[in-house]
Write a structure and sequence with these properties.
heterodimer; A: mainly alpha; 13 helices; B: mainly alpha; 0% strand
């Protein structure tokens, strides 16, 4: 085939890619490259006179205790939530996929928190868990003659409560992903296993759990990428407090970049966190892809 | 293979309904607070 004929055949396909590539460049590539460039400058967000400062912003991130603390918080939150959601969503999916008469209503109930804005959810839970006497839990405790609990105002309880609320709001939605996958598993496998005398646990361990790998890969990746860059729920619930107990990296980036006008420093933080997210996501993806490949061998 | 609705299934159903009610408590406050004035 001549080069001219080859190009005439292939160019229409390449042209189809142009709109998507253009949007992707404007929305992702250009902002990412700009962030990388700004991270090596002292840019303040509005002045056109900014200077190259080398790796100073990156060094400052590691020297700033608050930045390191917010990266740690984001990592704790971003890793714990996917683990807990998976642990609760799989059994929930199994129950909601059984022959319960109310399974359709139950599915709707468990899915419902995913429909509401996370900001609203944050405000509702803030009211329920408020450390003042107006909070739902504390007003019930006062009526029962008990002492007020600090709850969200307690340094040690704020993060576990935040994780618990995120799990509550995400478990139904991720259970739906698992239900969809469960419905694709052929009942023949279970029939054969029952004939071979396999117990329910053995059937789960050897049939259900490995067959859920495709759903698990989508669910875990969605949870991991979504929660590592979480901002709305933690901010609505605790505004990063008490102290810096629930301050996420996203909140620190916004505060530094928008409120303190340190765009260069905020860009360095964003870029470092982008690397952390990329490494984590690629590692988890590789691990799941290996499991998936094993499943079809 | 159609599964039978046993006594165990009924207990599971009741248990799940109780969990669903507890699960919905925060959403009840969302509805209640929308009807309250400042």
């Amino acid at each position: 085939m001549s080069v001219k004929r080859y190009l005439r055949k292939e160019i229409p396909w390449v042209l189809f890619l142009v709109p998507a590539l253009l949007v992707y460049s404007i929305v992702v590539i250009i902002p990412t490259v700009s962030t990388l460039v700004y991270s090596f400058t002292d840019y303040n967000g509005f002045s056109s006179a900014f200077h190259f400062v080398g790796g100073r912003n990156y060094l400052q991130v590691f020297q700033n205790k608050d930045a390191v603390n917010s990266i740690t918080n984001s990592l704790i939150y971003g890793v714990t939530v996917p683990v807990l959601v998976t642990v609760f969503a799989i059994p929930l999916a199994l129950v909601l996929n059984s022959n319960l008469k109310s399974k359709n209503i139950l599915r709707a109930v468990f899915f419902f928190p995913s429909v509401i804005s996370t900001l609203f959810l944050g405000y509702i839970w803030k009211f329920i868990l408020s450390s003042s006497s107006t909070g739902l839990i504390n007003s019930l405790r006062i009526n029962a003659g008990k002492e007020i609990l600090l709850l969200l105002a307690d340094q040690n309880m704020a993060m576990p409560l935040l994780i618990l609320i995120t799990v509550w709001s995400s478990v139904g939605w991720h259970a739906c992903i698992y239900i969809a996958n469960l419905q694709t598993i052929s009942p023949d496998y279970y029939e054969a296993a029952t004939l071979d005398g396999a117990s329910k646990w053995q059937q789960f361990k050897s049939i259900t759990f490995p067959m859920l790998t495709p759903a698990m890969s989508s669910s875990i990746l969605l949870l991991l990428t979504g929660n590592l860059k979480a901002y709305d729920l933690p901010y609505a619930l605790t505004s990063g407090g008490p102290g810096t107990a629930t301050t996420m990296i996203t909140q620190t980036i916004i505060e530094e970049g928008v409120t303190s006008n340190r765009v260069g420093y905020a860009s360095a933080m964003s870029f470092l966190f982008l690397i952390v997210i990329a490494v984590l996501t690629v590692s988890v993806n590789t691990f799941i892809a290996k499991r998936e490949k094993k499943l079809y061998e | 293979m159609e599964k039978k609705y046993t006594k165990k299934t009924f207990i599971a159903e009741v248990f799940m309904i109780v969990i669903a009610i507890v699960f919905m408590v925060p959403l009840y406050y969302l509805v209640v607070s929308t009807f309250k004035n400042q």
